[in-house]
């Protein structure tokens, strides 16, 4: 099947093994999870690393170690690092870890780096990534942020010949239930933008309806991000065994939809 690109987000910045014993924390656990998820259909991994206390950290050395291990153990899997601030890191610190790692792929929340007052510094950062061929996935938490992205491109802060976006449905809130319809305002904003023909988009969804949200988004041409960062349960409400089960379930349903439409 030729379908959406699937990125697994196996741990995120906040959850721990207290949330699920199979949530990967160490470098080797993340690598093992990546191998399992690649085997069932994931194309890439959205990677967070943790410190010795299992807390979120933006650390260039740990990222290099993880990327090196993944390149050996699952060489055909793409690796995307995160710059997520989690209320801890400043834009300067976020930019610094990317500059030190120089990954092939990175996700950056537009709203987080846009808080940097020195737009000239921000422009140098984004232009440097473009020159190095780093694929930046711009995280969009609200459809209105698409307009701000357009402004930053017009101001030459961001170079965006073929921009990549992540649409985030929901948040880290108790009882969060993202619905498929939450995707539509993001898609409409993307379609109205100057990037509708050249850009690409991916969707992630918090809560138990994660799969249904992703299937709805995929029908509109969206790639899919799935995993324990956003949701721990299967469609029937039972706790997933691991990240690979979440990926396999999505792949199965995407294949089923494809066969019905063919």
Label this structure with key terms.
262 residues; alpha/beta; TIM Barrel; two-stranded antiparallel ribbon; globular
Structural description of this entry:
With 262 residues, the protein is α/β, with parallel strands linked by helices. It has a single domain, classed as TIM Barrel (Alpha-Beta Barrel), CATH 3.20.20.70. The chain contains nine helices and ten strands. The chain has an eight-stranded parallel beta barrel with strand order 1-2-5-6-7-8-9-10, surrounded by five helices. A two-stranded antiparallel sheet has the order 3-4. Helix 6 links the parallel strand 7 and strand 8. Helix 1 packs parallel to helix 2 and helix 1 runs parallel beside helix 9. The longest helix has 19 residues. The protein starts with 5 loop residues before the first strand and ends with a helix.
